[in-house]
Amino acid sequence: AKRRGRNGYLFYSHRMAEQMRERMVLEQGLLKAMEQQQFRVLYQPMADLANNRLSGLEALLRWQHPSEGMISPARFIPVAEQCGLIEQIGEWVMRTACQQGQRWLAQGLTVPRLSVNVSVREMQSPDYVERVTAILAETGFPAERLEIEVTESIIQSVDQSLRLFTRLKALGVQIAIDDFGTGFSSLSLLKSLPIDRIKIDRTFVQALPDDKHSRELCRTIVHLADSLGMAVTAEGIETQSQRQFLQSLRCEEGQGYLFSHPLSKSHLATKLTPHCSA
Ligand code: C2E
Ligand code: CA
Ligand code: CA
Ligand code: CA
């Protein structure tokens, strides 16, 4: 037992050193990344499961690091949150996405809905709503087409979320709860907030259609969304059988590699259809 403990400790300290090194690389790099324009926004299509039409786009951040290569947001967003850079980065993502969305609209292309991820920490900053208001005014992107994706963890503070969401809704912006099913929010809390959409986390979708637990969970979430009058999107759809199962539940929207990977703005533009002014 002692040996295992000692190995465990050594392993742990080695890992800690690794993590500290990585954190320093990321933290120092993040400061430069903004100035040197190393960030990119990709856009992943969402599809109406009934007719396969494009129903929305999710803006996803990428960091092209000069020496470390492409770094996943799953790695650097938590660091940006901890060192207080998330507000600045998040604001840049939203401005970039809204500018791009408005540019597509001006070109006569259809942008059904544009979703931007917002971290809880960012949303809780005191001037968050003012910043969204300013970006909408500055870019001219229609508020009704902007959706903000926030994780369930925000629901922990219901009073605060209610005030915040109410102000965002007053702007015309829509609100989606991301990664739904992975947090511990109670369903009754969900009911008391003005939420437009629930996104089923991809871990449940990926276990479809074989895993019984995931099948039941997806079924429950789709029914829940239905009865609360919320839209529902299943993320991470990779196979036809996953898609078919979700369609059989009458889940209305899907996102995942089966439809498209996240794309650069120029690549995506080739997939947008002209407005139909009927
Ligand atoms: P998310 O919001 O849940 O975004 C969906 C993630 O799933 C994206 O990963 C997307 O590329 C990936 N994905 C889409 N379809 C599939 C599929 O069929 N299979 C699999 N395995 N994955 C799929 P990505 O782009 O690496 O982003 C990871 C996370 O980083 C996001 O998860 C989101 O939480 C966060 N993130 C990304 N961009 C931003 C941002 O601008 N701001 C903030 N605060 N967070 C962001
Ligand atoms: Ca998301
Ligand atoms: Ca998600
Ligand atoms: Ca996720």
Quick gist of this model?
The protein is α/β, with parallel strands linked by helices and 278 residues long. 49% of the residues lie in helices and 19% in strands.
3D architecture notes:
With about 280 residues, the protein is α/β, with parallel strands linked by helices. Helix content is about 50%, strand content about 20%. It has eleven helices and nine strands. Strands 1-2-4-5-6-7-8-9 form an eight-stranded mixed barrel, surrounded by four helices. The mean pLDDT is about 90. Bound molecules: ligand C2E and calcium ion (3 copies). Ligand C2E binds near residues 44, 202, 235, 238 and 256. GO terms for molecular function: cyclic-guanylate-specific phosphodiesterase activity. Keywords: c-di-GMP. This is cyclic-guanylate-specific phosphodiesterase.
Helix content: 40-55%
Strand ordering within the main sheet: 1-2-4-5-6-7-8-9
Attached small molecules: ligand C2E, calcium ion
* Biggest beta sheet attributes: 8 strands, mixed, barrel
Shape label: globular
If you average the pLDDT, what whole number results? 91
What distance separates the N and C termini? 75 Å
The value of Rg in angstroms is 20 Å
Q: Tell how many strands the DSSP assignment holds.
A: 9
Strand content: 15-25%
Individual helix count: 11
Given helix and strand content, the structural type is: alpha/beta
Low-pLDDT residue intervals, each spanning 5 or more residues: none
The H-and-E topology, N to C, reads as HEEEHHEHHEHEHEHHEHEH
